[in-house]
């Protein structure tokens, strides 16, 4: 057991945004919300999945919608509690632990707000090991754990409970409701026992995020390369460097969809890299050749500071580097690829581990 305090937030939010692969919501907004909650309510107790009692009632607290909307429609501080208490009333059981849906951007720090506000412990785990755009794209889905009943709440006081036949239907119905709520809603879902959390969630990802953030900050202070430091912790590789030459982005069907083109510099001069995204970065191609695809991580960072750049922040002229890194091993199973492989997103390519595509020596076992 440990505690998250204000001193942990900078590194945690920074590293989580790296893991978020461009999605998960604005990490700066999440950091501010978490800081306010910790100042108001005090430190949050963090436990490992192994420390959670078998019969505990664990619930994911998150925000759903298009990241582009959340930049303009700033989250409040009460909606996530409304969603949590709505689900608790529907379940008829007291929630005992809070968990993260994904270790990315806003969705890595929002559960800190929920835990601080309720006094509940936060479990150091998440359901993705990165960020993905849809609810069913979670490791609990592979273990037969239902996302619903799921509660949604908005800033107007509306509350909805979805109780669907499977996680794909939960995503479909919740996405429609979220669009009606203004393309952003706070959610509580994936209620499970402590035993289920141990078996299905990806452990120690908040600690991993903090380690990545500390590596970046430490490299800056030591006048070393923060981008290389982040890639090293991820077990990944910097696959491209250049200047953002073009960004196409639109909010549709509750997602931020689009592509960016980077003109290469230095060793990549004369080459172009194209990255396509749906909230998160999905595929990277250089001269038409695939360098990385989901479920592996594709993260765009500032060339000098190593700060991750979310898909809603991409703009012409930014000097960037692109990191490709291995995903958690569970996603490389056939069940994982059926949920989040490139073909699910409509790309006519088979998944090839990024180590082979980018010529890495080995990979990460996260």
Distance between the termini: 21 Å
Give the structural class: alpha+beta
Radius of gyration: 19 Å
Helix content: 25-40%
Query: What is the CATH level 1 assignment of the largest domain?
Result: Alpha Beta
Q: Any low-confidence stretches, pLDDT <50, length ≥5?
A: 361-366
Largest sheet descriptor: 9 strands, mixed
Sheet-strand content, in percent, reads: 25-35%
Would you tell me the overall average pLDDT? 93
**What fold name goes in the CATH topology slot of the largest domain?**
CV3147-like fold
Instruction: Give me the count of strands.
Output: 16
Overall tally of domains: 2
Element-by-element helix/strand order: EHHEEHHEHEHEEHEHEHHEEEEEEEHH
Using the 3D structure, state the CATH architecture of the largest domain: 3-Layer(aba) Sandwich
CATH superfamily of the largest domain: CV3147-like domain
The rough form would be described as: globular
- Number of helical regions: 12
């Amino acid at each position: 057991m440990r505690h998250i305090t204000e001193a942990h937030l900078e590194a945690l939010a920074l590293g989580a945004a790296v893991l978020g692969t461009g999605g998960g919501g604005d990490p700066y907004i999440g950091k501010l919300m978490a800081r306010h909650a910790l100042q108001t309510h005090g430190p949050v107790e963090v436990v490992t999945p192994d420390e959670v009692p078998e019969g505990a009632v664990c619930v994911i607290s998150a925000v759903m919608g298009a990241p582009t909307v959340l930049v303009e429609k700033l989250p409040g501080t009460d909606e996530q509690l409304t969603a949590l208490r709505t689900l608790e009333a529907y379940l008829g059981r007291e929630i005992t632990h809070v968990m993260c849906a994904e270790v990315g951007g806003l969705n890595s720090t929002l559960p800190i707000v929920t835990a601080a506000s309720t006094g509940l412990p936060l479990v150091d785990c998440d359901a993705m090991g990165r960020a993905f755009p849809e609810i069913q794209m979670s490791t609990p889905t592979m273990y037969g754990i239902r996302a619903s009943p799921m509660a949604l709440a908005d800033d107007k006081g509306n509350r909805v409970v979805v109780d669907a036949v499977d996680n794909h239907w939960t995503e479909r119905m919740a996405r429609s409701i979220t669009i009606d709520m203004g393309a952003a809603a706070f959610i509580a879902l994936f209620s499970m026992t402590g035993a289920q959390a141990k078996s299905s969630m990806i452990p120690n990802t908040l600690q991993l995020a903090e380690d990545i953030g500390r590596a970046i900050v430490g490299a800056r202070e030591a006048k070393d390369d923060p981008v290389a430091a982040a890639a090293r912790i991820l077990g990944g590789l910097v696959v491209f460097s250049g200047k953002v030459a073009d960004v196409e982005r639109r909010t549709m069907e509750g997602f931020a969809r689009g592509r960016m083109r980077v003109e290469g510099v230095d060793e990549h001069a004369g080459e172009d890299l194209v990255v396509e995204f749906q909230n998160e970065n999905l595929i990277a191609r250089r001269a038409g050749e695939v360098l990385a695809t989901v479920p592996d991580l594709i993260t765009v960072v500032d060339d000098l500071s190593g700060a991750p750049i979310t898909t809603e922040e991409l703009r012409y002229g930014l000097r960037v580097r692109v990191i490709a890194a291995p995903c958690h091993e569970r996603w490389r199973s056939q069940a994982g690829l059926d949920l989040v492989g490139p073909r699910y997103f409509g790309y006519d390519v088979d998944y090839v581990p990024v180590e082979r595509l980018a010529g890495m020596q080995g990979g990460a076992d996260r």
